[in-house]
Amino acid sequence: MYPRPPGGGRAISRAAWYLDEAGVRTVSVGQRVLTSYALSDKTGRDYAMAQLSRCQQATQQEVATAFGVSRCTVNRLCRRLDAAGIGGLVRKPRSDKTPGAVTAKACRLRREGKRIREVSARTGVSTRTVRAILSAEGLSA
Q1: Are 63 and 53 in contact (CB under 8 A)?
Q2: Is residue 15 a part of any domain in this protein?
């Protein structure tokens, strides 16, 4: 029989539970710690979810419910872990290519006297797009 989670611990399944203390989540199975990670660590969280499912200590639905994600998310994390190990769970930084950010950067670079091709290279959009942005903003292309 598995012990009950300590005070403040939350059950994930019959065997697994977690405890949040001082900004750290500790995930345990029975009396053994499976993993622990900072609450701000998304890769650590994703690893814990995939491990619980892969070790068959909780169903994907139980993991999803406990961590507040969908079962599809848990399934996707398991596939990534199987295919590429922990590196498959690391989120890649996103570039800021929102229209507002690209427009602001393109206009700033052009005002600094940069050529269209250089503005294009630095913003990651085509020269045609740069020309359209500058024209719409009333700057010379």
Answers
A1: yes
A2: yes
Q: Which alpha helices (H) appear in 15-70, and where do they start and end?
A: 42-54, 60-67
Q: 């403040």: which residue's tokens?
A: 8
Distance, CA of 125 to chain centre: 25
Let me know if residue 118 belongs to a domain: yes
Residue 1 has pLDDT above 50, yes or no: no
pTM: 0.66
pLDDT tens for each residue of 45-88: 999 999 999 999 999 999 999 999 999 999 999 999 999 999 99
Q: Domain range holding 107?
A: 99-136
Distance CA 118, CA 50 (A): 44
